[in-house]
Amino acid sequence: MKHSYGLTLIELMVTLAVFAIVAVLAFPGFRLYQQNSNRVSQINDLIATFNLARSEAVKRNLAVSVCASTDQATCSNVNNWTTGWIVFVDDNNNGVTDPTDGNGVFDTAANETTLLQAHGRLSGANVVYTDIANSAVAVRFNNRGMPTVFDAAANSTTTATFMRCDDRRNTDTNPDANARAIILTASGRTRLSRDSDQNGVQEDASNVNLKCP
Fold first, then answer.
1. Domain boundaries, the chain
2. Residue closest to 165 by CA, chosen among 119, 204, 126, 113
3. Would you state the pLDDT for residue 154?
């Protein structure tokens, strides 16, 4: 009759020690992978959102806006896109040009009810996602796909630079090396920031190095 034996105490301790060493060595690599994966996903999400809003504005022949949101139902009027955002038809479709039409605010009280997308809060530690060019709280696309960028005081312009940083800005030797940005042009198209001078930090629309807060 064969007997089956479990691990001895020494074998178990050795196994656990090896596992602990492997975990310690693997964790930084996994964390880096997760940080980079989050960055790519969150950059792509906002680009896709702007593309959706722009195409819907042209298709519907109505203003469509994107605004920062904390509850995924209303606009927060704050230049903090880390909390999420919404896309909505910025027109109550009553055949009359009202003050609330195309103002970059989801005016449900004025019968603006068509919510096209709601994006939740971004995951990851200490993520910062803001417009560093014009402090945008909302972007409106008209029926030709052209953007108007609003700040919290309802001042407007036509461009924006949405920069994303994560907690590596507090730990890395070069805190700005992991900053990435979406540059929204006056035509309504987007492009990614790039490191044109190869100094390890990507630049904004004016070729100035991105700088994490």
1. 9-192
2. 126
3. 92
Its CATH architecture, for the domain 9-192, is: 3-Layer(bab) Sandwich (3.55)
Rounded to whole angstroms, the Cα distance separating 27 from 128 reads: 23
Chain centroid to CA 201: 19
What are the backbone angles phi and psi of residue 117, rounded to the nearest 5°? Answer: -160, 145
| Burial class of residue 100 in the structure, from the number of CB atoms within 10 Å of its CB (0-12 exposed, 13-18 middle, 19+ buried) | middle
Task: Please tell me whether the overall predicted TM-score, pTM, comes out greater than 0.90 for this model.
Answer: no
Tens-digit pLDDT profile for residues 94-127: 544 567 777 888 887 777 788 999 999 998 877 8
Phi and psi dihedrals of 191, rounded to 5? -145, 160
| Alpha-helical segments (H) within the chain | 9-60
Between the alpha carbon of residue 58 and those of residues 5, 61, 78, 169, the distances in Å are 72, 5, 27, 39
